[in-house]
């Protein structure tokens, strides 16, 4: 039973992921959203940069929680619960706006199969929003039965779109720090020749296979992970200025001395490396304690 359901869902999501017919719609939507969502402060806030995690998963809690609570009251609250249910539906509709904005922002940085799933996820959520708007209107007009039916349909829809959102995160890794499973050496590791370093010119080196961006800034040698935590852009190909590196893919900016994000869309900081010179060779090692999964021998 469980494996059958799993197979059915896999087939369903596979069809969406391969549906190239969705691409022209996604292209148009992306073009329409790129201007309003591109200003730097807006991009950082919608990406969750100030709080260190993508904002969208937290923002969806309010509308989904409000709407499902309204359905619960519809089922067990009787006439006493009707007013509260109507207010919960309204709260869900209002709070869906920031949830949709953060989701649209995250979607703008996806491509291929992820972008198609994200498009269907969003379309389903807009459909649910329409159902709940209809539910609220019907309740205001004393057509409580219709309002409850529309809310029930909305509950089913947000459950399905929530599953699609879960697929994007847990199966496709959208919103996940792209360096989360990198195993970074804790021992000093030779990575480059000191003589070949040019001031303010980032270079790509590898420490036990992990890509590291190394740069000579003034008298200092600095090193952080080269793979952008946002979507994996190669930081050494970015622009190094005023001690910060700007990712060539979406313009996220990191301070190289401590790996902190200065400007979104990344929300996670970069791994920082300690650097030293030994006999003309640049050596690096991890500067902090590894997370459990980073040290997992299987990875
Ligand atoms: S990959 Fe998106 S900002 Fe670097």
TrEMBL record:
CDD domains: Rieske (cd03467). Keywords: 2Fe-2S, Iron, Iron-sulfur, Metal-binding. It holds the Pfam family DUF2231. It comes from the Bacteria. Signal peptide: none annotated. Residues 189-284 form the Rieske domain. InterPro entries: DUF2231_TM (IPR019251), Rieske_2Fe-2S (IPR017941), Rieske_2Fe-2S_sf (IPR036922). This is Rieske 2Fe-2S domain-containing protein.
């Amino acid at each position: 039973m469980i494996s059958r359901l799993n197979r059915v869902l896999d087939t369903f999501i596979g069809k969406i992921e391969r549906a190239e017919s969705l691409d022209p719609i996604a292209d148009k939507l992306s073009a329409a959203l790129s201007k309003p969502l591109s200003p730097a402060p807006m991009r950082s806030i919608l990406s969750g940069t100030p709080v260190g995690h993508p904002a969208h998963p937290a923002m969806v809690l309010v509308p989904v929680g409000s709407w499902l609570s309204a359905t619960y009251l519809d089922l067990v609250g009787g006439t006493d619960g009707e007013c509260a249910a109507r207010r919960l539906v309204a709260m869900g509709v209002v709070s869906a706006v920031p949830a949709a904005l953060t989701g649209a922002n995250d979607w703008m940085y996806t491509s291929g199969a992820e972008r198609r799933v994200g498009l269907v996820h969003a379309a389903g959520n807009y459909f649910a929003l329409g159902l709940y708007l209809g539910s609220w209107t019907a309740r205001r007009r004393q057509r409580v039965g219709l309002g409850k039916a529309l809310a029930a349909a909305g509950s089913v829809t947000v459950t399905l779109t929530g599953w699609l959102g879960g697929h994007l995160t847990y199966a496709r890794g959208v919103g996940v720090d792209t360096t989360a499973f990198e195993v970074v050496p804790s021992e000093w590791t030779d990575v480059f020749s000191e003589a070949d370093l040019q001031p303010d010119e980032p270079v790509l080196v590898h420490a036990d296979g992990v890509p590291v961006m190394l740069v000579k800034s003034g008298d200092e040698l600095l090193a952080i992970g080269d793979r952008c935590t946002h979507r994996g852009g190669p930081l050494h190909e970015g622009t190094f200025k005023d001690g910060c590196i700007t990712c060539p893919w979406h313009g996220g900016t990191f301070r190289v001395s401590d790996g902190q994000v200065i400007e979104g869309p990344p929300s996670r900081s970069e791994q920082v490396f300690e650097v030293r010179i030994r006999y003309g060779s640049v050596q690096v090692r991890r500067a902090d304690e590894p997370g459990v999964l980073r040290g997992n021998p299987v990875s």
